[in-house]
């Protein structure tokens, strides 16, 4: 790595790139400090300065970039490939509508999250709006408005997920991990 990067924790210049899940991260080889932690919203140019940049301020303006964002978000959330395909399909359908194609990059970014969130809800996958907004560095109010419009435009019937369902799903996943045999 470049000798310009310095660990803010121990001062070491031994910074290495490490792949974690679907995202790369920069890690201090001496103390283990994570300089960039799988930033979904980082571009390489900004990694040189170790700064985060949201997608809405980045240069990715074409639809292929937005489709990649759908896949990236699915990978970060470790969703099954069926979910990825559904979310991409929803994005392709939604972006053809003027209410989503002629909008700011920030709203398109929220649309990416809405496609993934709606897919998860349809499959009873425990994902909250808060989690999506956190990963996208998005405004919760804008996300909620965009999500309601997304559901209306695509005429999707998405079940709500109760808190009890979410807790039950999380607990079942832990039980499967801890007790893999019946």
Quick rundown:
This protein is mainly α and 182 residues long. It has 2 domains: 58 residues, N-terminal domain of TfIIb; 112 residues, Cyclin A, domain 1.
Indicate the proportion of strand residues: 5-15%
Radius of gyration from the alpha-carbon trace, in angstroms: 19 Å
The description of the largest β-sheet is: 3 strands, antiparallel
Give the tally of structural domains: 2
Residue stretches low in confidence (pLDDT < 50, at least 5 long) are 38-61
Series of secondary-structure elements, N-terminal to C-terminal: EEEHHHHHHHH
Oligomer class: single chain
CATH superfamily assignment of the largest domain?
Answer: Cyclin-like
Helix content: 40-55%
Report strand order across the widest sheet: 1-2-3
Form type = globular
User: What is the terminal separation in angstroms?
Assistant: 48 Å
By CATH reckoning, the class of the largest domain would read Mainly Alpha
The helix-and-strand class reads mainly alpha
**What's the total number of strands?**
3
Which CATH-level-2 architecture of the largest domain? Orthogonal Bundle
Mean pLDDT reading: 77
Q: Per CATH, what is the topology of the largest domain?
A: Cyclin A, domain 1
Keywords: Activator, Metal-binding, Nucleus, Repeat, Transcription, Transcription regulation, Zinc, Zinc-finger
GO molecular function, one term: TBP-class protein binding
Protein name: Transcription factor IIIB 50 kDa subunit
Subcellular location: Nucleus
